[in-house]
Prior knowledge:
Farnesyl Diphosphate Synthase, single chain, two-stranded parallel ribbon
Amino acid sequence: MSTAIKYFLATRPAFLTITIFGCLIGFVFGNLTNNPNWTINLLALAMALLAHAAGNVLNDYFDHLNGSDLINSNRVSPFTGGSRFIQLNIFQPKQIHQFGILLLLLATILGLFLCFMTTWKLLPIGILGVMLLWMYSAPPFKLMSHGVLGEIAIALSWSLVVIGFSALQSRVIDIEIIPIAIAYGLMVANILFLNQIPDISADKSSQKMTLAAQSNPKYLWIWYSSFPLCAYLLQIFAIQREFAPPQTLVTLLVTPIFWFCAFKLKNGEIDQSHLRKMIPINILGVHLYALLLCVGCILKAKVPF
């Protein structure tokens, strides 16, 4: 395996699709014209993916420093417990740290270029996104280690992806996209929360007090259910205010997936064998939610592609 491929795999590319779908939502909801600027959109997609990859790599580095990945024997690979590239001695910690900083720098440079080419109104979104990316894993903030603050940071980060990509289409920040953006951000936070559950023991031992680590096992299902519930409530609010078309309620087709996972958690099925099935199903559910959200919007707007 070449060094380039190893670095690519260190970004945990399988998770990057969640950012692609966030960009797609912003693209579809962003007051599209018949002639979107594909070059700008592709550059923006690359920038978002670089930022997400940087976040993944830096998270691996800081989880190495706090020791949680090293002692995590209950991880559900490849979904939890990091990429393991440091623990398997594929890369040295310093290499992972430098790689994460490089990715973040590239994303920042590309973001500034996009602001120059389109509108500087995007700059605050980019600055806040970079701040959240860094504060999530790095000291002294380490939001991932402070309960629900970690989920809030993730929800805000992916909300900004949707808002930013929408603003890229119209060159204005449309407040009407915010409920839909936050709804998607909450769905992404839902992935984070469920993925934390198999890591609870290792996280507690390393003082990484995630929301799952702080929660009573009996109530994990309540926290899990709260994220999609709030997302759907925001979506309904957006429809009532005519910020989103009613056709987007097609996303309700995905709710059985979330019910299934919540039911399993309520029954105390949080061992590795059960989570190995639930985690990919939950990830699939969030992807389907994003896809159906876009389909509903397209059916209403009849946007030509």
